[in-house]
Amino acid sequence: MRDWLFATVVASGLVVATNAPAGDAVSRAQDQGGPVTAFYGVNGGPIDPFYGPINPFFGGVYPSYGQISPFWGSIRPFWGAINPFYGSIRPFYRKIDPFWGGINPFSSSTSLSPVYGYWSAAGPDWGNINTFWNQLQSSGATDYSELQAQLNDFVGAADSFWGARAQKIASKVFAKYGIDRGDPASLASASAETRAAFFLNYYDRLMDLTGLDRVDWWMAAVHWSPALVKSVGTGTAHAGVLDAWTTAKNADVQHINVVGGYAGYVNDHGAAVASVMAALQDNVGAMGVAPNTNIYLYNPFDTTGTADWTDVTDGIDALFQRQSTSVVNASLGVPGWTLSKEWGAVLNSTKLNPDKDRIVLVKAAGNEGVTQTTDIAWPVANGVPNNLVVVGSVGPTGKISQFSNRPGEACLLLHSRCREQNKLKYRFLVAPGELMLVEDNHGGTTRMTGTSFSAPLVSGTIALIESRWPWLKNYASETVQIVLHSADDLGAPGVDSVYGWGMLNVEAAMSPLNLDRLIVFQPFAYKDGVAVAVDPNSANWKADRLKTALQDPARRQQWEKGKAFLVAYEKVGTTDRDFLVPLSSKLVGKSQTVNGVTQPFQSYIYQRMLRWANGN
């Protein structure tokens, strides 16, 4: 009898698995899932995307109503802490515009106002309309004329801003969700979930008209920006994806290579995951964490949507041994488990074990909302893994998603004993996973929810790290350490049973982990691309000397005028990382050749150094 690993449909498209006999009719009827379409399930099938613990428009993850409304209140995405159009990732405004230049269609030379300004007004307008709509329904009102007028004004404002195409979009989206503005009975029956889905879809389709890459809420949440990607330079990493077959043309990924597995099983999940990792900055659709990454996809699922653990092991082996991928994303697992015992056998298989220290496995935690309480007996010979990362989901408020599995105090046991450092929580962190904008494998975008889309944010970050420091692909343990130790602490202080290390922070992962331990070369001056020591007789600096210098306004002014920069190193485990930090705004966007290697200046680190020097 074959030990089957099968997938269950969920609204997010998360791949989950369980053990069942090969002939089990239920298991063979399932697939991995696909794009969520309201009331029609996955790919038009019978699965209701608004049912169960991962309902993307119900309860704690309801997108347009209550505390976490993304368009109203403290976390709406166009205002406040997670505003994606403000600060370093705001794409339509002045010097910090990462898309600055001819591709910005909203410059002052056009008749259009900035998109940011439009949504700053339209978001609150919709919030008011939605609130009024709730009041009418809860009161049992039959007169919806005022609501009809408000909706017509709302759509009319969009038409005025976006042009004639907006009217067609409104008609299609209203029809998709069964809302007839001219029919009071239709308005009276439109549920809160339906209205939330309508508005988010309406927003997405209007943003399609911009001709720009789409900014999404997760970017500010994990401190990622297109400018950060540019600071990596031209380095390229290889990343593996264990997922469904894709057409390879509609993930908006420059190099997506389908390298093995079953060819007959195709859905949208693989393209969506790949887009989170590596969608291009090309004015089309979504953007991924590491757009220069080469993606290699292996499909372990046969035509029934099922796979066994041999398929999974073969897939990781193919991605690592034959394609030289140093990180593999696995948005799959066993229902009810954050990490099941089978992964021990996979990571310690004879195929992978000899090189296990050179591959990072990033696994989605799962979507049942469970806290793992059962310990896992781990194969003793090689100890517990330091190359494994399990990723849970958070929403825009930074709170754990109601559907996300959690590590609890479960332990990876050696010789039936638990040591504190072997607990699952020390291999766990969280990343955004609710209503994520992804490529849909059909040339467009959609929104998906689940830890399936939290995991590739971490996998993409690892690819970004290895693009900048390519030797880290041989140091899986150190790479994992960088990602975990740079996370923003959430929940109880320190590593805890809900959030693990906390929230993924991409900028922090691309920065020194501990500025107090930096090995700092004295500042240099940038002259015609050549580094010249500011003080040739000065020895290398220690971190405390750098801190004192950063506190001196006169010294900083001298650096600014002299185009100064510094080179620093940090030790990470048995290896190290170098950093090229400009001390002058005149070097932003420039590169420097050090030891024969040309690297862009990492401008974002200077601000972190200033905060460090001033005790912030």
Structural overview:
It is built from 17 helices and 23 strands. With 616 residues, it is α/β, with parallel strands linked by helices. The strands form 7 sheets. Strands 5-6-4-8-9-11-13 form a 7-stranded parallel beta sheet, sandwiched between helices. Strands 16, 17, 18, 19, 20 and 21 form a 6-stranded antiparallel beta sheet that branches. Strands 1-7 form a two-stranded antiparallel ribbon. Helix 11 links the parallel strand 8 (327-330) and strand 9 (360-364). Helix 15 (543-550) packs across helix 17 (603-613). It is globular.
List the main descriptive attributes of the protein structure presented here:
616 residues, alpha/beta, six-stranded antiparallel β-sheet, 23 strands, 29% helix, globular
| Largest beta-sheet characterization | 7 strands, parallel
What coarse outline follows from CA principal-axis ratios? globular
Classify the beta-strand content into a percent band.
15-25%
Enumerate the strands of the largest sheet in spatial order, edge to edge or round the barrel. 5-6-4-8-9-11-13
Helix content: 25-40%
Distinct helical segment count: 17
How far apart are the termini? 60 Å
Number of E strands: 23
Give the uncertain stretches in residue-range form: 1-113
Mean pLDDT over all positions: 78
Radius of gyration: 25 Å
Structural class of the secondary structure composition? alpha/beta
